Amino acid sequence: MAEGEVDIASLEDSFKKFAVLGDTKATGKELNGKNFAKLCKDCKVIDGKAITSTDVDIAFSKVKQKAARVITFEEFKEALQQLSCKRFKDKDEQEALEETYKLIAGKSPIIHGVTKATNKGGVGRLTDPSKYTGTHKMRFDETGKGKGKAGREDIPDTRGYVHSYRDAGTYDQKVKGAVASPNAKKT
């Protein structure tokens, strides 16, 4: 591989990272239009002058199959070829394509605007599980971590003969007295 060339494997790796973004069922073999536009924006293929988001959408539409909503890696390379000629006008076709590949190779999606928790005003009081009462209090443990399903459902105690018997395991003490039970206290 020459000094100016880009490794196609790293380009394909970036393609796969953007292909699975936001879709838990994605395999990484096909890229949708939204993620293609994000790839172009995050990797600075869109510069706002020579290439705009409209140009990216047009290139995507030209290379995809008629009824398809996604493109494969080969179609992705075709779209980049169309965009590279427009992005790097002063270079020949192959050099422009290499420059575009360099912009994309090895990059990952940039996650913008991840919401951070705040505790200002009433939010802190409302989100502090130590201040919860009633049935809401039972959904969290002492540290404030949720109990999951055990905290959402009233799971019945099915031990014993009678449902929800409060004094389970004390039958021998009550019926037979202190003599029959080895755990009974002597007075």
**Tally of DSSP β-strands:** 2
In N-to-C order, the SSE pattern is HEHHEHHHHHH
Taking strands numbered 1, 2, ... along the chain, how are they ordered across the largest sheet?
1-2
Form type = elongated
Count up the helices. Answer: 9
> How many angstroms separate the termini?
92 Å
How many strands, what sense, and barrel or not for the largest sheet? 2 strands, antiparallel
Percent of residues in β-strands? under 5%
Unreliable segments of 5+ consecutive residues: none
Q: Average the pLDDT over all residues and give the rounded result.
A: 81
Q: What is the helix fraction of residues, given as a range?
A: 40-55%
Radius of gyration, in Å, reads 32 Å
Given the helix and strand composition, which structural class is it?
mainly alpha
Summary of the model, kept short:
The protein has helices at 8-19, 33-42, 53-63, 73-87, 93-104, 122-126, 134-137, 149-152, 171-175, and strands at residues 31-32, 70-71.
Report on the structure:
- By secondary structure, this protein is mainly alpha-helical.
- Helix 3 packs across helix 4 and helix 4 crosses helix 5.
- The mean pLDDT is 81.
- The longest helix has 15 residues.
- The protein is elongated, with a radius of gyration of 32 Å.
- It has nine helices and two strands, in the order H-E-H-H-E-H-H-H-H-H-H.
- Strands 1-2 form a two-stranded antiparallel sheet.
